[in-house]
Amino acid sequence: MKALLLCASIFRLGGIDEFNQNLFKALELEFKDSEFTVISLLDNKEEAFSLWVNLKLLFCSESSSLFLKKIVFSIKSLKIILSKKPAYVICTHLGVSQIAYYLSKVCKFKYAVITHGKEVWDLKRGNKYRILESADLILTVSNYTRTKLINNHINPAKVVILKNMVDTGRFYPEVKNRQLLKSLSIENKKILLTVGRIVRGRHKGYYEMLEVVTKLSEDYVWLVVGSGNDLSRLISKAQENKIMHKIRFCENVRRKMLVDYYNLCDVFVMPSKEEGFGIVFLEALACGKPVITGNKDGSREALLDGRLGTLINPDNIEEIISAVQSICLRGDGRPSEFLRKEVEDNFGIKVFNERVRLIFSEFLK
Questions:
Q1: How many CA atoms lie within 13 Å of 361's alpha carbon, on the beta-carbon side?
Q2: Are 333 and 200 members of one domain?
Q3: Which domain holds residue 189?
Q4: How many domains are contained in the chain?
């Protein structure tokens, strides 16, 4: 059986890339006799690292031009579909699914689209709607987004949930890295942490956190791990508020160092309002850390509706402050061993791989 996997990126820091890596590993493990070809729109060979043995990975142009990359992506996709004649195409994001939608009408293959959150919450029966309505399978990472899709008149029978997972072998509790503490000049501080892309138009709660940090005492410091096109504006706002001394912006953190940053914090805080699920919550929980997040989006599913962490109104600054102070002073009553076991039982590798096997055994018939 031959399948083509289309993705925006695989090797960058972010929840969708992490999901793609986990999915590709699971597909290779569970479908050993299948031939998978992966085309990545944004990655390049220099960014790539070894993940799989049997998946053929193709890159697009080395140019920084997104327009040129999209042209190369379309040409390579067309060549693979015409030459290899895959029976199935799996689009790991709605943004790379248009070519599958059009070519499926001519080349007669089945295609699946994976949805992650906000990009499908308001379809308005446009091109996005047509792509999803024509898909043979739609995967989504949360009940929250599945409900949004159904409310947009997508056939419920084709919308299947595949929740994010976390590798507890990569994310685990350990003592604080003293050298890292010293390099950031945050010894003897109560440390708040947020990890994620800082992108304009994404409501992950960064600006609410600026208000929180402004009102907290000098005993607190906020670590922000991530980058994106809204980082400069966030920094400017922090400078306006005169709180730069209470924040550490960490842009270029390597993957293998992420676990050190999670273990530095006293509490992980991301009061998002438009999160499809949030793999970073699972990573923090796997490190045994208390988590605070919003109660208005898919984030609550990562916390099992509050069983694993504290849900707050993301628009209520005083409520966020109260939760932060309470946890930093008294803890949240959830032992790290409990958090790790719950994460492993609900979002571990075995659970994810089995779900991939069940879903795609049906789809890849």
A1: 8
A2: yes
A3: 178-346
A4: 2
